[in-house]
C-alpha cells in the first residue's frame, strides 16, 4: 500500500483545504434555512411556474415543499452545491491518478521501482477514491451535526440524510473513475479532465431534458437520473443511486487498468 499512502500523503494539505472549503459551503447554505422557511410558499409558487425540466434541475420536486427540511436541503445542497463541488474534486484527482503523474514525469519514476503497472494503477485509483470519500465524509458530519441547530431535522430521518450523502459520493466516484480511465487509456491530464467534465455537464443536461419529457428513453443512461430522479431526503434512498454508479465505475476501472498495462507512456514535457 506504499503507492496508496504516498498519493494521500502528497495531497494531504489540499484534501484538508477541500474539507474546510466544502464544509464551509455546506454551513453557509444551511444557515439560510430559517429565513427561507418563512418564504417557502413564495418560492414554491415561483418554481411552480418554471418548466418541469428546470424544476428538476433545481432540485424542486413538486410534492416536497422548499420550506421543508427535505425540500430545502435537496434543492440547495444536494442538487447544486455539494455535487458540483465533489465532481470538480473527483474529476481532478481521477485525472491526476495516472494522466497527471504521466504528464509531469513522476509516473515513470514510480514505475522504475519494483512495482507492477497494475499495482500502481490500482493503488493510485483507490487513493483518488479515498480522497473523494474523505471530503464527502467531512461534509456529511457537518450536515448531520448542524442540521438540528438550523431547524433541519423536522421530518428528516437521519438515515435519509446519510443515504443522500452516500449517493452524492457515489456520483462523484463515478466521475473520478471516468477521468481515471480516460487518463489510463489515452494519457493526458487535460483530456481526462475534459472528458470527465463533458460527461458530468452533458449528463446533467440530459437529466433536465428527460425530466421535462424530452429524450425520456435515455433516463437510465445519465447518472444524474439515478441520483436526482427522487428526493432521497424525503422518500428514502433508491438502490440505483448507489448500485449503478459503483457498477459502472467497476467496469471502467477494470478497462482502464487493463489498457494501462499495455500502453506506451507519453513523454513528459
Number of strands: 0
- Intertermini distance: 29 Å
Rg computed from alpha carbons, rounded to a whole number of angstroms: 20 Å
Number of domains: 1
Counting DSSP H or I runs of 4 or more residues, the number of helices is 13
* Major pleated sheet: none
Residue stretches low in confidence (pLDDT < 50, at least 5 long) are: none
Shape estimate:
globular
Structural class of the helices, strands and pairings?
A: mainly alpha
Helical coverage, percent range: over 70%
Our estimate of the beta-strand percent is under 5%
Q: Report the mean per-residue pLDDT as an integer.
A: 88
Helices and strands, in N-to-C order? HHHHHHHHHHHHH
Describe the structure.
By secondary structure, this protein is mainly alpha-helical. The protein has one domain. The chain contains 13 helices and no strands. The mean pLDDT is about 90.
Keywords:
mainly alpha; 269 residues
What topology emerges from the helices and strands here?
Blueprint: H1 2-10, H2 12-31, H3 33-38, H4 40-48, H5 52-57, H6 69-104, H7 106-111, H8 117-146, H9 158-186, H10 189-211, H11 223-228, H12 232-235, H13 240-262
Amino acid at each position: 500500500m506504499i503507492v496508496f499512502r504516498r498519493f494521500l500523503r502528497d495531497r494531504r494539505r489540499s484534501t484538508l483545504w477541500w474539507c474546510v472549503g466544502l464544509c464551509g459551503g455546506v454551513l453557509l447554505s444551511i444557515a439560510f434555512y430559517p429565513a427561507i422557511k418563512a418564504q417557502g410558499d413564495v418560492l414554491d409558487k415561483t418554481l411552480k411556474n418554471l418548466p418541469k425540466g428546470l424544476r428538476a434541475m433545481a432540485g424542486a420536486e413538486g410534492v416536497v415543499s422548499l420550506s421543508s427540511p427535505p425540500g430545502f436541503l435537496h434543492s440547495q445542497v444536494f442538487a447544486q452545491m455539494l455535487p458540483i463541488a465533489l465532481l470538480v474534486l473527483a474529476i481532478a484527482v481521477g485525472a491526476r491518478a495516472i494522466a497527471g503523474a504521466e504528464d509531469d514525469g513522476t509516473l515513470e519514476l514510480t514505475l522504475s521501482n519494483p512495482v507492477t503497472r497494475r499495482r500502481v494503477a490500482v493503488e493510485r485509483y483507490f487513493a483518488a477514491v479515498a480522497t473523494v470519500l474523505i471530503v464527502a465524509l467531512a461534509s456529511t458530519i457537518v450536515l448531520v451535526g448542524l442540521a438540528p441547530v438550523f431547524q433541519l431535522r423536522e421530518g428528516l430521518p437521519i438515515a435519509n440524510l446519510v443515504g443522500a450523502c452516500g449517493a452524492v459520493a457515489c456520483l462523484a466516484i463515478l466521475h473520478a473513475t471516468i477521468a481515471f480511465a480516460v487518463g489510463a487509456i489515452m494519457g493526458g491530464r487535460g483530456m481526462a479532465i475534459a472528458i470527465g467534465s463533458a460527461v458530468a455537464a452533458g449528463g446533467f443536461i440530459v437529466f433536465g431534458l428527460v425530466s421535462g419529457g424530452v429524450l425520456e428513453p435515455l433516463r437510465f443512461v445519465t447518472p444524474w437520473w439515478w441520483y436526482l430522479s427522487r428526493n432521497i431526503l424525503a422518500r428514502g434512498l433508491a438502490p440505483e443511486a448507489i448500485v449503478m454508479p459503483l457498477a459502472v465505475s467497476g467496469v471502467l476501472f477494470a478497462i482502464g487498468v487493463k489498457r494501462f498495462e499495455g500502453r506506451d507512456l507519453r513523454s513528459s514535457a
